[in-house]
Give the backbone structure.
Amino acid sequence: MEIEKESTLKGVHVLITGASRGLGLSIAKRLKTEGVKLSLLARNLGELEEVKAGLGQGCRVFGADITDNTAVAKALEYFRAEHGPVDILINNAGSGSYTPFGELTTEEIDQTYSVNVTAVARLIHAVLPDLKKSSDARILNVASDLARRPLANMAAYSSAKHAAAGLSQSLARELKEDGIRVMLLNPGVIDTWFGGSPKGQVPPPYGLNADHVADVVCFMLTRPAYLLMDEVSLHPMKQPEF
Ligand SMILES: NC(=O)c1ccc[n+]([C@@H]2O[C@H](COP(=O)([O-])OP(=O)(O)OC[C@H]3O[C@@H](n4cnc5c(N)ncnc54)[C@H](OP(=O)(O)O)[C@@H]3O)[C@@H](O)[C@H]2O)c1
């Protein structure tokens, strides 16, 4: 019996949101070593240009807010013109804050759902025609361990990530008919700039090193095409409340 081969990343067009820093940047660096064509999106174009200079050839960047449909459409137009149709979409951009629910403004509540759920659904919808053309299409959605458990003072973020998990798992079942693998990654605490805190505050074993999470992302994406890792969760050994 023939052994199923690993899925390749060489020459594949990968679009990553939130790739200017944190986990998105680590994923970009890791996948670059596999020979992908990278399309990177975040709001701060200056930071993205620095990332591009560091990554070198085969990397394109576009400054856009994922909640701005017009800007995202322009970004997709640019990325497709440079690299062709998207083969892999990594929905990594996300935001939230540790704040008592009553102290959030209504704008902050709307923004939390908009970034973590609505923009993710809209981007998948926009990229779907590309993915249906690909011979080995993959979507990887970064949610959170809070997509599977509640946490006080993170009600909007946790409920938004619960919705993102529902979206991901529903689409995993729907899009397998088109040969598209939809994967969900639920990390615990990662040592990044998330929530406005500077990187370095939660080093291992209290927080995950983003490069180690990126290794897991690469592993998930490179399983043989018949094998779907539909949900993976990760935690640092000393994460409180786990
Ligand atoms: N860090 C954790 O403890 C943790 C735990 C579980 C899950 N996560 C999830 O992991 C993912 C990555 O977060 P991170 O920890 O790497 O955070 P981070 O260091 O704050 O990075 C967030 C990235 O997303 C971009 N971004 C944020 N809002 C955006 C928007 N509206 N439009 C476009 N880009 C946007 C940021 O760039 P700009 O600011 O320039 O837009 C940045 O590149 C998120 O989905 C987060 O919810 C994080």
About this structure: The beta strands are 13-17, 37-42, 59-63, 88-91, 138-142, 181-187, 231-234. The longest helix spans residues 106-133. The mean pLDDT is 97. The longest strand covers residues 181-187.
